[in-house]
Structure formats: structure tokens, C-alpha cells
Amino acid sequence: MLEIKDLRASAGDKEILKGISLTVNAGEVHAVMGPNGSGKSTLAQVLAGHPAFRVTGGTVTFDGQDLFELEPEVRAQAGLFLAFQYPVEIPGVSNAYFLRAAYNEIRKSRGLEEIDSMDFLELLEQKLKVVQWDPEIMSRAVNAGFSGGEKKRNEILQLAVLDPKLAILDETDSGLDIDALRTVAAGINQLRRPDNAFIVITHYQRLLNYIVPDYVHVLSDGKVVMSGGKDLALELEARGYEWVDAQAEALAK
Amino acid sequence: MSEAYLREFESFTGAATAEGPEWLEPIRRAAMERFAATGFPHPRHEEWRFTPIAPIAQATWRHGGIGGAEEIAREQLAEFVFGHEEWCTLVFVNGEYAPGLSSAGALAEGVVATSLADALRNGGDLLQRHLAHYARIEESPFTALNTAFLRDGGLIHVPAGVDLSRPVNLVFVTTADAAGAVIHPRNLIIVERNARASLIESYVTLAPGTRYWTNPVTEVWTGPNSWVEHTRIQRESEAAYHVATTEAEVARDGHYRSFSMAMGAALARHNLNARLADQYSEALLYGLYITHGEQLVDTHTVLYHDHANCRSWEVYKGILDGRSHAVFNGKVFVKPEAQKTDAKQTNRNLVLSDHAKVDTKPQLEIFADDVKCTHGATVGRLDDIALFYARSRGVPQEAAERLLTYAFAAEVIEEVALEPVRDELDRLVLERLEGR
Q: How far off is chain A from B270, nearest CA to CA, in Å?
């Protein structure tokens, strides 16, 4: 589904991704871990097409298409979704209005008819259950005045409604208390299917107790320095990121 | 230049159309004399330096007696009634009350909503007490000119303790017959003690592209412990000029709330002056201007904090496209005795084009020491990260820009209490954005 080969990217003059390769197939959950500044979030944002980053090398194909040929909206329409680490507030537009606009744009891009607000409400009712939320949240402006936890939950609601093939969750666990974490993780688990895939970016192993990954990759200084199964996350938790750095240094020699 | 107006004035006061109570004659005459003495504001006058009124001052405008109501069918006005034909709607065609196009609506007992011309024919000391009491001819030559030629407009009187459950809708519509003419609508809104009222004042046209000049003055008295919501919508012809003055005075414990939408006219100026005339009164001024092409929209507001313990809250937003120009000047005067004043002013501008221009200026003059007064003005573009957020959800660039621009407007439109009016304002914004 997603094939990343030797990806390099910069912010301004600073190279952040220094040759990342990763393959994600349908039905898989990949965890990407790493210390602060290792390039985890940059990887997520580059894949979604964030304007702050410049791709300087390598290739990424998504379902066989060159991802970097596609505008951010076309990537979304093709089935790629990024749950933001810092979701954006849009005062003035209700959550329902925004989400329906997005949903309809994606439908339009696939040659489907737009859905009216009544049918959309029905769909919403189903999806709100995924994150155990009351419909009341939909009349509030997008993320405006939301708590950190509400913002993250809102990202997962959008994910549930837009139903992408590949979802990238950028530190969705950061700032969540344990109850919110459980709710969000349970929501994500409900959305797992053989025909979709997830990249879960996290600093801590904690989230992976709830969302069990098939593969774990560890990033350090813009490169994948280790890959393994779910046990790698536990080992990482036990040994700390210093261990990774030592391994990386050994690798470099 | 003044001679032409003086000649018009003599024929106006000589004509039957200006009939009215005796006390009005000296008011009109004093106003005419005032205008004759001052003339139009000089281009370098501080209050007018961003507002090129030369096209108004140098033209010769026809006065009065335009007619045109008979050519309009009620259906043509459907889009100006907010889907509520049952509301009391007073329609003025080219400045003149059109009873055939108006609807009486069901009003609470004792409420008067009528044409000022009709009310003046009947006299009454209510008018004498309030008319030309709040809008002072010394304030501006435009107010003087309006007062000299005042004849028709809306009169709303809500007696003490009465709740006007439905709004009164004042619609000033122009037709092609208005070409080359000046119209001086005059409105008087009196909301007495413990009463509640909502009114809408719209300036619209059936002849986009017609060049005329509207010079309205609206006086609003918000009585003790009363509540007034005043929504103003300016959608004049884009070849027209609109120079308007609103004078609102708020009594003790009174609450005056204004929303002003400006999107029409080649040149539009709105002077909105709110006087907090006794303690514990408040004025909330919200506004939205949306400009494109070569339009100039100028808003000058003044909040007079004359007494202690009053609150004012002001939020004006602007969306500018094309080569348009917006001016915002917000004054807040806090007198020495106005302790515990709470005043906040915000002006935010969203610029969609490289050629649009904004001049924004807060002006706080505070003479009391125990007050909370803040102001802030911004001029900016759409936020890149917000755009990316919308695009990352599948919304294409242009639609994302529209969505965020709409959101910017909607955030202030939300302050309009009347839902049907809010919906109409939303529609107008979306329609304008879709036409980009």
C-alpha cells in the first residue's frame, strides 16, 4: 500500500529525514517510535504534504502512485489520512459543517453524489459511537476551545468518518490521560480492517499496550535504526532511547 | 456648492411634501444653515482623510420626489424579508414610504412602527422629544444635510415594559429611477424603559450599477433597563455612495447591541456613535465588511463612556479582495467620572488579494484611572496551517480558502441573535465568496 524508499526531507536548510525506507501493507499496523527530534512527526507531515517541508530525495508510492505528484487534498481523496499532533482550531465553522464538507469533497472526487445533511447526521451518529461521544460536540466550532483530549478524539472521529486506507496517527497519545487514551485506542482498534493500514507514531510504548502493532520501527536522527515486532517496543521501554543511540552508533561504525 | 443645496432646500420646505409640525421648521432651517456654513468635509479633515468624498461633493444631485414604488412587485422584495413575511416590514422605495409593499405584521399593543412622514403629519410630542435629539448637526455636515431634508424613514416606538417579540424590518430599496438622486432617510427608534426590541435596517437595490447617493441618519434611544438589537445591512448598488450615521444613546442598565454588515456601494461610510449615557449601561458593536473590486468601505465608531460602571464590547471584521480599501477607526472616550469602565475593541482584517488595502486605527482617550480598556487590530492572510489542515481532509485549495474565509466571517455573524437574519448573512457571505 505504502512504499517509502530512501526518503529525505528538509525544513529550510536543515535536513531532518536522512533516508527512510518503510513498507506498509494492507491489514498492518506499524508503530514508529523514537526520541524527540528523531524525525517521527516530520515523516508524518511529509507524507501528508505539509508545506513547511521540502522533499529532497527518495520516493514514496501510495497504491502505486507517486505520492509527491499529488496535492495534499488529492492524497486525502486517495485515502491517506493524518491525525494531527496539534489539530487546528477553526472558529466560525461547526464540526459538523467541516466534516461534511470534507466527506463530500472526498465523495465528489470519487464520482459519488454529495450526501445531504440529514443522511450525514445518521452516518455521524454511528461514527460518534466509535469515540463514545455525544452529538453535542458537532455543533461546536472545529477544535475551538476544545481540551487537548477533545482535539485528539476529534481527529479519530474524522478518521472514522472519512474512512481512509492508510491512517497516520501523529502522537495521538500525547496529552491524553489514561481514560481518554483507552477510549481513543479502542476507537482505533474498531477501525482496523484487513483492507486498511495504520502508522502509529508515538514517543512512548504506553499506547502500544492498547493498539498492538505488527511492526515497530525506531527512528534516530532521521533514519530507521531498528525494526522488529511488537516486543521491540517493550525492550525500548525497558532500555530507554540511549540504548537506541548506542545501537545506531554501532551501526554507523 | 452650498447654493445648489440652499435652492433645493427652499423648494423642499416650500412644498407640501415637507409638511410637518411647526417645531420642525426651525430644526430643518438650522441644519441647512449649518451645512451652508461648513460645506462638505475638507479632504484633509482628520475624520475624512481616507474617504474621498469628492465624487459626492462635486456632483449635483436631484432631491426628492423620485417615485418608483408603483413599478415594484412584492415578489421582488422577497429576498429582503428573511423568509418572514409575517414580520412588520416597512418598505421605502427611493426614500419614500411604500405602504402597498409594506406589511403591518402583528405588533404588541401600543407599539408604533410607521413611516416618519406619516407620524410627522400627526405631530405628537414624542417626536418632538426625540427627533434630532441624539444626532447633532454639529457632528457632521452629512447629519446636518440629512436633518435639513428629513422627511421620511422608519419610526419605531416601543412603550415601557413591552417586548417586541418579532423584529421590525426597515427596507430601503432603490430602483433605476434613483439614478443621479440623493436620498436622506431618517429613522427614529425609541425603546422605553424595561422594553425589548429588535430591528433590521437594510439598504438594498433592485438596480445594481445605478449611481445614486444615500445619506441616512438613524437615532436610537435605548431606555432604562431596555434591550435593543439593531442589525444593519448595507447592500447598495456598487456604483452608489452611502454615507450613514447611527446615533445610539443608552440609558441606565440599558443594553444596545448592534451588528453592521457592509458589502455594497462604491464608497460607503458608516459613523456609528454610541453614548453610554448612564451607569450600568452597555453597548456591543459587531460588524463585518466584505469588499471587492474598487470598493471603499469606511467604518468610524465612537463609544462615549460618560459614566461609571459601563461596558462596551466591539468586534469588527473585514474581508478584502480586489483593489478594495477598508477603513476602520474606533474611538473610545472615557470621561474622568467613568470609573470601572470595561471597554474592549477588536478589528481584524483578512486580505485576500495583493492589491487590497486596510487602514485601521484604534483611538482610546481615557481620562479615568480605574478602568479596563483594551484594543487590538490585525491585518493578515489566511493561515497556511489551517489551509493545510482542511486540504489534508480532502478539501481542495480553493474550497479550503472559501471555507476558512467563511469561518472568519461566521465567527462574528454568530453574534446576531435572530436566526433567520444570521442565516441570511451567512448566505450573503457564501454567495460573495462563490462569485470570486
A: 25
Query: pLDDT tens-digit profile of B99-152?
Result: 999 998 888 889 999 999 999 988 778 999 999 999 999 999 999 999 999 999
CB B174 within 8 A of CB B183: yes
Cell numbers placing B226: 431596555
> Is B386's CB within 8 Å of A90's CB?
yes
- Reduced 3-state DSSP string for B366-431: ECCCCCEEEEEEEEECCCHHHHHHHHCCCCCHHHHHHHHHHHHHHHHHCCCCCHHHHHHHHHHHHH
Nearest to B396 among A73, A84, A87 (CB): A73
Quick one: cell of B278? 448612564
Alpha-carbon gap, residue B284 to A122, rounded angstroms: 38
| Amino acid (1-letter code) at residue B358 | V
pLDDT, tens digit, 9 for 90 and up, residues B413-428: 999 999 999 999 999 9
CA angle B374, B321, B243 (to 5 degrees): 70
Between the two ends of chain B, the Cα-to-Cα distance in Å is 40
SS3 B197: strand
Contact (CB<8Å) A75/B403 = no
- Residue numbers in B near A75 (CB within 8 A): 392
For B366-405, b/e burial (b = at least 16 CB within 10 A) is bebeebebebebebeebeeebbbbbbbbbbbeebbbbbbb
Q: Assess: ipTM above 0.85.
A: yes
Query: What is the DSSP track for B119-185?
Result: HHHH--HHHHHHTTTSS-TTT-HHHHHHHHT----EEEEE-TT-B--S-EEEEEEE-GGGTTEEE--
Chain A residues with at least one Cβ partner in B under 8 Å: 48-51, 71-73, 75-77, 81-82, 84, 87-88, 90-93, 98-99, 101-103, 105-106, 109, 141, 158, 162
- Residue of A76, A88, A93 with shortest CB distance to B394: A76
